[in-house]
Amino acid sequence: MRTHLIVPALALLGVACASSPPSDSATITHDHTMTTTPSSGDAAACGGAQVFFANGSTELDDAARTSLDTYAGCLSRHEVDTITVVGMTDPEGTPVDNLILGRARGLVVANYLHARGCDVEFVVRSFGEAGALESEPLWPLERSVAVSATSAP
Question: pLDDT by residue (tens digit) across 47-79?
Fold first, then answer.
């Protein structure tokens, strides 16, 4: 059961902009309009990033940190206005718990990128289990965060 992981994650809920790390000012959204690649401007040169998590976890593994370090390095060489971070989960657990877990994963990624010098506005969303694959062997693909950056056209 993931309860022990979700309770600490509640303290992380939020998003930030400018020179402060993500905080608790944003709401959990549940939409299906995720874009995993930048839509305009200079940030398009970096594409998007996606990192994966263990079941019920919000911890970044070595592969996730390496991917995010590479992405942050690329973003530092381009003009970026906003970084959108979308957390997702598999269907295990309740829909509310999955929204919270997806949000917590997104915040971990946003905080990591902020600590790596991405000092821009962050938009953190959670899809929870929305749109998750029905085949349990594929669930590890759902335990992820997708990141995209945009800049002014």
Answer: 899 999 999 999 999 999 999 999 999 999 998
What's the CA gap between 141 and 133, in Å, rounded?
9
Residue with tokens 């269907």: 91
Which residue, among 144, 126, 106, 122, has the nearest Cα to 21 in the 3D structure? 122
Can you give the residue range of the structural domain that contains 11? 3-150
CATH at 71: 3.30.1330.60
How many structural domains does the chain have? 1
Residue type, 143: R
**pTM for this one?**
0.74
Give dist(CA 90, CA 93) in Å, integer: 8
Rg value, the chain, Cα: 14
What are the distances in angstroms from CA 124 to CA 77, 114, 136, 142? 22, 13, 26, 17
Q: Which candidate, 17, 81, 6, 12, places its Cα nearest to that of 43?
A: 81
- The two tokens of residue 26 are 């944003």
